[in-house]
Amino acid sequence: MNLYEVVKRPLITEKATLMKEQNRYAFEVAKEANKCQIKDAVEAAFKVNVVKVNVMTVPGKMRRIGRRQVLTPSWKKAVVALEAGQKIEFFEGV
After folding, report:
1. What confidence tier does 69 reach under pLDDT thresholds 50, 70, 90?
2. Cα angle at 67 between 66 and 69, to 5 degrees?
3. pTM beyond cutoff 0.70
4. What does each C-alpha distance from 76 to 15, 19, 25, 87 come to in angstroms?
5. Residue 14 contacts by C-beta under 8 Å, 6 or more apart in sequence?
6. Domain locations in the chain?
7. Are residues 31 and 7 in contact, defined by beta-carbon separation less than 8 angstroms?
8. Could you tell me if 11 and 26 are in contact, meaning their C-beta atoms sit under 8 angstroms apart?
9. End-to-end CA separation in angstroms for the chain
10. Is residue 55 within 8 Å of 72, Cβ to Cβ?
11. CA separation (Å) from 94 to 4, 54, 67, 89, 91?
C-alpha cells in the first residue's frame, strides 16, 4: 500500500480539536493499514516524529433513507501522538 493511500482525511471534531493541546491528532485511515504504515505515512506527509499510534474501528450506523434503513460502512480511525514541541500545521487555525 502506498504511503499516500493510508491517511484518507483528518478528523476535525470537537474532541479532536481538544486533543491538539495534548499533541495528539486524529485521522481517518484505510481499513487495511496497520500502525507501522500509519506512522510512516504521517511522518512522510507532515515531516514530524510520531511517538504513538492508537487505532480503532468505528462501526457503521443504521440510517434512514425514506422508508428504508441502511447500514453505513464501518471505517478506521487513528489517533497519532507526536513528540513534544512538534505540531501539524494543517490543523492550526481550525
Report:
1. very high
2. 95
3. yes
4. 16, 18, 14, 22
5. none
6. 3-84
7. no
8. yes
9. 30
10. no
11. 23, 22, 37, 10, 6
For residue 89, the tally of other CB atoms under 10 A from its CB is: 9
Residue type, 12: I
Beta bridge partners of 3: none
Nearest to 37 by CA among 76, 85, 90, 11: 76
41 contacts 4 by C-beta, under 8 angstroms: yes
Closest CA to 55 of 68, 71, 39, 69: 39
Average the pLDDT over each of 25-29, 63-67, 86-90 and give the range with the smallest value: 86-90
Tell me the three cell numbers of residue 40. Answer: 510512516
Does residue 69 contact residue 63 with C-beta atoms inside 8 Å? yes
Q: Please state which CATH number belongs to domain 3-84.
A: 3.30.70.330
Average pLDDT over residues 34-48: 96
Q: Which residue has the cell 485521522?
A: 27
